[in-house]
User: Fold this.
Amino acid sequence: MNRLSKNPRVIILLGKSGSGKGTQADFVREKFGLDYIGSGDLLRARAKKKDFTGKKIARILAVGGLIPTPAIFKLWLDRVEELKTKDNFKGLIMDGNPRKILEAYLIDEAFEFYGWDKNVKIILIDISNKEAIWRLTKRRICQKCKEIISFVGHFRKIKRCPKCGGRLVQRSDDTIGSVKNRLKWFRTDVQLIVNYYRKAGRLVKVNGEQSIEDVFKDILKNIK
Ligand SMILES: [Zn+2]
Assistant:
């Protein structure tokens, strides 16, 4: 039995769309050799199975709806069960879970059951609504390779895809209306989660309006 697997690190990243939490999740995963769990990946994989649940999930995803908690939690728990049996399992980085307060309770209970509850770090990458709207409506996607180009730092000056030279266009779901919807969801659902962790003294807030490198430095300071 691997000793590390008894004491894995768990990092939960919270933040609005546009906060850069996906990028930071990649950095953290690489630095600590963690496994990534994102609800988007879990759901897209499940939607590929063409049974009732798979098809229903695909339909909800297609309109940008929210999958009910029992369905997502089942996928989440199955994935954790699978990962924790890996020989070199070092822990998890989560981005996009929990999505609702109910999921925060369930995840807490699950980690307590595994005996990992002392190892959980919750980090909010904080940006204002104004900044989120600015970044999301300004960011571009490469028409050719689908790389998403964030509107931060030196990327603000980029005209062509840095990977393949393809043309950069706006993503169809990065319209102001859809961005405002995502922010509304943050305000109604995710804010409850943020408050729940904050009141329990478990939340670390990092300023997300710095450079990508500085956000990462602040995250590292809090998970060392
Ligand atoms: Zn490209």
Summary: The pocket of zinc ion is lined by residues 142, 144-145, 147, 161, 163-164, 166 (CB under 6 Å). The chain has a mean pLDDT of 91.
